[in-house]
Automatic annotation (TrEMBL):
InterPro entries: Ig-like_dom, Ig-like_dom_sf, Ig-like_fold, Ig_sub, Ig_V-set, T-cell_Activation_Regulation. The keyword Iron does not apply. Keywords: Cell membrane, Disulfide bond, Glycoprotein, Immunoglobulin domain, Membrane, Receptor, Signal, Transmembrane, Transmembrane helix. GO terms for cellular component: external side of plasma membrane. Residues 1-18 form the signal peptide. This is Ig-like domain-containing protein. It comes from the Eukaryota. It comes from Sinocyclocheilus rhinocerous. SUPFAM superfamilies: Immunoglobulin (SSF48726). The lineage of its organism: Eukaryota, Metazoa, Chordata, Craniata, Vertebrata. It is a single-pass type I membrane protein. Its main location: membrane. It is found in: Cell membrane. The keyword Transport does not apply.
Length: 126
């Protein structure tokens, strides 16, 4: 019973801690952070999926390689990645030429370690 309680608390705290908010301005750029607790993964084991508002494909890293084949057209040429950091467990992406529709929730699913990070992007008017 006690064990169950601890687990539920851990899940709730975990969720709150993982929510990150970043702010951007129209036509500016923003770094969407996502890092894993697990390092030293072999490139062929690295699978990471960035999604916007639950479903739109922003960016995929499949077997350690950038994959833009399935990418939603609205993010084409607007995602900057840092492949040299994948080995260290960092899967940050930079989104450029921001517009209003870029606001919302971004999720970074780190499939190989079953981690799930959420970034809320707020677009400010200037
Ligand atoms: C993306 O960039 C490439 C190379 O610079 C260019 O050929 C292509 O037209 C661009 N696509 C879009 C949607 O801007
Ligand atoms: C994502 O959701 C946000 C907040 O609901 C909305 O402002 C934005 O237009 C959505 N963008 C896309 C591409 O779905």
């Amino acid at each position: 019973y006690r064990f169950y309680f601890i687990c539920v608390s851990a899940v709730l705290i975990h969720k709150v801690c993982l929510q990150v908010t970043v702010e951007g301005v129209i036509s500016g750029s923003v770094l969407l952070p996502c890092s894993s607790a697990e390092h030293d993964c072999k490139p062929q084991d690295i699978d990471v999926f960035w999604r916007h508002n639950g479903s739109k494909i922003v960016f995929d890293i499949i077997k350690g390689k950038n994959s833009v084949e399935q990418q939603e057209p609205r993010y084409k040429n607007r995602t900057e990645t840092f492949p040299e950091e994948y080995k260290g467990g960092n899967f940050n992406i930079r989104l450029t030429a921001l517009n209003h529709a870029d606001a919302g929730k971004y999720t970074c699913l780190i499939a190989h370690s079953s981690e799930h990070k959420t970034v809320e992007l707020i677009i400010n008017c200037v």
